[in-house]
Specification:
- This protein is α/β, with parallel strands linked by helices.
- Among the domains are: 47-182, Leucine Dehydrogenase, chain A, domain 1 (Rossmann fold, 3-Layer(aba) Sandwich); 206-358, 3-Layer(aba) Sandwich (Rossmann fold), CATH 3.40.50.720.
- The chain is 46% helix and 16% strand.
- The chain contains 15 helices and 12 strands.
- It has a 7-stranded mixed sheet with strand order 9-8-7-6-10-11-12, with helices on both faces. A 5-stranded mixed sheet has the order 1-2-4-3-5.
- Helix 2 (20-35) packs parallel to helix 4 (94-111), helix 7 (206-221) packs across helix 13 (361-375) and helix 14 (381-406) packs across helix 15.
- The structure holds nicotinamide-adenine-dinucleotide (NAD).
- Residues 158-161, 207, 234-240, 258-260, 310-312, 332-334, 359, 362 line the site of nicotinamide-adenine-dinucleotide.
């Protein structure tokens, strides 16, 4: 049999990484069929409630004004305010944010928190913008969204290309547009803020922490411990870097890491803190003297117990899934696995801990931040970690139970738990009018 060449493989990849919303729709549809979801609820959840698109000018440092397009997709709010990240990336488009918003509805429902699902962002290259330009971009975007966001209505958070500083700019812009008496309460309009401006302890690491809890539960169920595991991670941003740090602190060996600049490997384990310092200093992973530079595609063939894609969507294609030498894929990113790759993983008996379960730590600790803002409280990080672990463990148990009951894969089971909660809410409230 002839081998597939790299160019053939990437042509295949392009073909299979089409519409992200179609991926989300297929995952949803599979679970809805297995659990026999009510037809009315099914048709409501098949599309977002609101699609907000704003075009607005931003002044660049050289005095020119450039037009930008921003999105906020509000998928569903039957369980609580719309909730989800704001992404700054050139690939941001309507199809992508629709998928990401739907996943937020299912993630919040699975976690059992009183939030719905939303997502937004701006198609831009944040790394080409100065800090002042990013500030004006964020403020003008927030202003353009107006009352489409709010602490009881739609609550943004950081995502790819945004961080605590962007959230503080967003909060400040929003607060300057509301009545002075509402300003303190209004800090809950965004989560993922800096500690000084109302953020929560543990929010920065929350998603990576949750990913590591998921790895821990997976290991426990198989009579293993995290300290005996080897792990490879794609993405060295908020989720990937914290997952690498925490997994290392738990005693696991992080044997390979890849980001958009390159990939490095060391079968004896990478010193994650040293790699972070190197990456901050040089702007990339390459040339780190305590690990070998490896080819971007060779990364996927790293021998490890757990592979954690924690970068962007559609990274794990069927061609890469065939190369994996791992026992489990833990989805730190949203939608990292294509539908065809998932099929290959099934054929190869490689397990998946699905995104809506594995990366739920971020929205759970965002929920804690929202509560703290509203009650003027400050919780200690130990309490936050304990509550996060307990909530993720509960979700884990429910997903395991649903997988057994319906004899289905873990992603379908996670959707079933979420969809059951959404269906119950519609049954109790009724569909208006
Ligand atoms: P980030 O911007 O902090 O980091 C993204 C990382 O991905 C960077 O290291 C970048 O180099 C890498 N990357 C981008 N394109 C790549 C490519 N083609 N190949 C290899 N690496 C690439 O973003 P983040 O907040 O860490 O988010 C990562 C993923 O996790 C996204 O899918 C996001 O939606 C999801 N997520 C984030 C949170 C959160 O709290 N930040 C919560 C849940 C899910």
């Amino acid at each position: 049999m002839s081998k597939t060449t790299i160019s053939e493989a990437s042509a295949l990849d392009n073909e299979e990484t089409g519409s992200l919303y179609e991926t989300a729709r297929q995952q949803f549809s599979r679970a809805a069929t297995v659990m026999e979801l009510d037809d009315s609820v099914r048709s409501i959840l098949e599309q977002p409630k609101n699609e907000v698109i704003v075009n607005f000018p931003v002044r660049m440092d050289d005095g020119r004004h450039l037009m930008f397009r921003g999105y906020r997709i509000q998928h569903n709010n039957i369980l609580g305010p719309y909730k989800g990240g704001m992404r700054y990336h050139p690939d941001v488009n309507l199809d992508e944010v629709k998928a990401l918003a739907a996943w937020m509805t299912f993630k919040s429902a699975l976690a059992g928190i009183p939030f719905g699902g939303g997502k937004g962002g701006i198609s831009c290259r944040p790394w080409e913008l100065s800090s002042e330009e990013q500030m004006r971009l964020t403020r003008r975007f927030t202003h353009s969204l107006g009352t489409n966001i709010g602490p009881d209505y739609d609550i943004p958070a950081p995502d790819v290309g945004t961080n605590a500083q962007h959230m503080v700019w967003m909060m400040d812009t929003y607060l300057n547009s509301v009545n002075a008496h509402d300003r303190n309460r209004g800090r809950a309009v965004v989560t993922g803020k800096t500690l000084t401006c109302g953020g929560s302890e543990g929010r920065d690491k929350a998603t990576g922490q949750g990913v590591c809890f998921a790895v821990e539960f997976w290991a426990q169920a198989r009579g293993l411990t995290v300290s005996n595991l080897t792990i490879a991670i794609q993405g060295f941003g908020n989720v990937g870097c914290f997952a690498a740090r925490i997994a290392s602190a738990m005693g696991a060996k992080v044997v390979a890491i890849q980001d958009h600049t390159g990939a490095v490997a060391n079968p004896s384990g990478i010193d994650v803190e040293a790699l972070k310092a190197h990456s901050d200093k040089t702007g990339g992973l390459g040339g780190f003297d305590a690990a070998d530079d490896i080819d971007a595609e060779a990364f996927w063939a790293t021998e490890c117990d757990a592979m954690i894609p924690a970068a962007i969507e559609n990274q794990l294609t069927s061609a890469r899934a065939r190369r994996l030498q791992t026992k489990v894929v833990v989805e730190g990113a949203n939608g990292p696995t294509t539908i065809r790759a998932e099929q290959v993983l099934k054929e190869r008996d490689i397990e998946i801990i699905p995104d809506i379960l594995a990366n739920g730590g971020g929205v759970i600790v965002s929920f804690f931040e929202w509560i703290q803002n509203r009650n003027c409280e400050r919780w200690e990080v130990k309490l936050i970690d304990r509550r996060l672990r307990r909530m993720m463990m509960r979700s884990w148990a429910l997903v395991t139970e649903a997988a057994e009951q319906h004899d289905c894969d873990s992603r379908t089971a996670a959707y079933i738990v979420a969809l059951q909660r959404l269906q119950d809410a519609y049954a109790e409230r009724g569909i208006f009018p």
